[in-house]
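sorry for the late reply, my laptop died twice this morning and i had to redo everyting from scratch. anyway the thing you sent over, i finally got around to it. pasting the sequence first so we're on the same page, its 150 residues, then the predicted structure underneath. double check i copied it right bc i was rushing
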Amino acid sequence: MVRKPLTLYHPRDACNNIAGQSNSVASRKRDPVITIISALMVILGIAEVVTGFRHSFFGVRTAPIAMATYLGAGMGLLYFVAGVLMLTAKKSAAAIALCLLGAIILGRVVMVVTDLYPTDSVSQLIAIVLATSIACAFFVVVALKWDAFV
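ok and here's the structure:
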């Protein structure tokens, strides 16, 4: 009678087998670029919510009316949620985050066109262009790093 060698059972192995994943997929490391971008989106989202309610943050101003407050804070909240979704590293969450980033970019354009972001100084224009460019860059990087999501 041939005896099989004794193997130790680990609960992690059962979870991976139930999910139909191998250990290499389950232990895949998160892309550091995605982590950094996600963290920046969360931080910038909070900053934008503050700007929406205070109408001034690090020199960037919004019009002191209720509509600017709601739109600015709303875009900040979208930015925050997109960053949190990206931290999950799931493709479905990243797809939603890309849609939210698109809404943020569109919202910024709408706020400039409707003069809810005043464009009366060069520093204000630079801040608006820079913030919108950062959101566009985040969109492009996430789209290019699509394979980093599971």
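The chain has one domain: 31-148.
thats about all i looked at so far, will dig more tmrw
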